[in-house]
Amino acid sequence: xxxxxxxxxxxxxxxxxxxxxxxxxxxxxxxxxxxxxxxxxxxxxxxxxxxxxxxxxxxxxxxxxxxxxxxxxxxxxxxxxxxxxxxxxxxxxxxxxxxxxxxxxxxxxxxxxxxxxxxxxxxxxxxxxxxxxxxxxxxxxxxxxxxxxxxxxxxxxxxxxxxxxxxxxxxxxxxxxxxxxxxxxxxxxxxxxxxxxxxxxxxxxxxxxxxxxxxxxxxxxxxxxxxxxxxxxxxxxxxxxxxxxxxxxxxxxxxxxxxxxxxxxxxxxxxxxxxxxxxxxxxxxxxxxxxxxxxxxxxxxxxxxxxxxxxxxxxxxxxxxxxxxxxxxxxxxxxxxxxxxxxxxxxxxxxxxxxxxxxxxxxxxxxxxxxxxxxxxxxxxxxxxxxxxxxxxxxxxxxxxxxxxxxxxxxxxxxxxxxxxxxxxxxxxxxxxxxxxxxxxxxxxxxxxxxxxxxxxxxxxxxxxxxxxxxxxxxxxxxxxxxxxxxxxxxxxxxxxxxxxxxxxxxxxxxxxxxxxxxxxxxxxxxxxxxxxxxxxxxxxxxxxxxxxxxxxxxxxxxxxxxxxxxxxxxxxxxxxxxxxxxxxxxxxxxxxxx
Length: 595
Known about the structure:
This protein is an alpha/beta fold. The protein has 14 helices and 30 strands.
């Protein structure tokens, strides 16, 4: 029935991958990603396979999907059950052809490459789909770039729906497909492997090793699926699915191809999939070459090369330093030595690192600069050196420094301004290199007549930089000062606390007193809501009138109702999911008054 909807709630998300609770949100029967059971499959538990799918032999065919438990409100009977006509599906190579009969619509929506190209009705559906079936997924997977493009388009157009790509899933590509947004999988490839006596494992298909008693059976196949679902779901919860994806992608050349196209398409996303603030335990593990193409790395490159502005009182002298294994860098032994040698100056410290390229000292506490892990060997490959040289040259020209002191150990191109190498082949923390660094800093600062910046003034410059990055500007900090002791510094304005540094979230926690100032100065994005009565709970899709499409998970914004500022909230869903995704979009932070 078209009016029966799944009860769904988001338990966790990481980029396009989501852990969706199915059924009563208080006690879900199952979670996606999961299996959908077809005719001839072994009976599977609801926790692994919460749906069944059947298809008749007529032309055009009808697909019926049934929930295997009480998944539709009010959760009193099993269901729902949906049926939909699949229409005619032409090969993706005939993408200019309009087949005419595109298939039905409703809670289950069949989509093909042709339908995406020709059915304008997809933009104005009367009923929002609960499950999207990508009918020609198998053909799209064999055409370079088509599968990632289709999945991104579907996910952005229908962020609240579950996506099923029939016939292409297996334990070997589950992580990659989930990363690209697929929620539902089937046993088609497993059945095909078993028919020739092969096993479909998390590393790909292979013949069983008989000397160890291996047998290609449904039992071993379901065990492989269960183990991989466990790994993927846990990785989504922990925010490290990308690491698992990079392990699984080399299972086949086609998976590597899918991942590369997907990364390329997301380098400049229209709607953000990225996070602004992440849990302290989240790691960005950059252990492989493909890590350099992660969208978060590309996003950081864009920040440094295009929008980042160095603190106003630190734009004369640039000191380039090597990174360290410990993050933030300032707590490492090497950087403590660097800072002692440099002293309290107005020189701007910027770290040279891979894969992020450059990390200014004023942004080293935040995501992803404080969260990435990379092997630190002191060796650079040709690609890393080229990236860094290109980035440094553009960055120096944009910021307008007068002098560069290079203690990074990386040989730089002509920057158009004086550039002094204080390493000269020596180790960065060797006595001779540190003495050379100290002497050159004193010499340059004296020649330019620059004074030092100490203590809380240096912290204010850092918090202003973080505010520009996490918000829209730092104007709300005009006239404010930093007070208090580490690690929870306070920002004060005329004896009124505007914010406090939260070392756990690595962000500024603003107070109620700051909200009117931030609204007046345009320092935070604004979400407008509409509802009867006063705003008491969090923010859900039905309440949203307008919102910034590029909002990121963890980002704070101001809440406005009827043209009046009423509080602030923190996003728990990325912009591309607003406002149609089920569940909570943002968690309330402050309420100024009840309306």
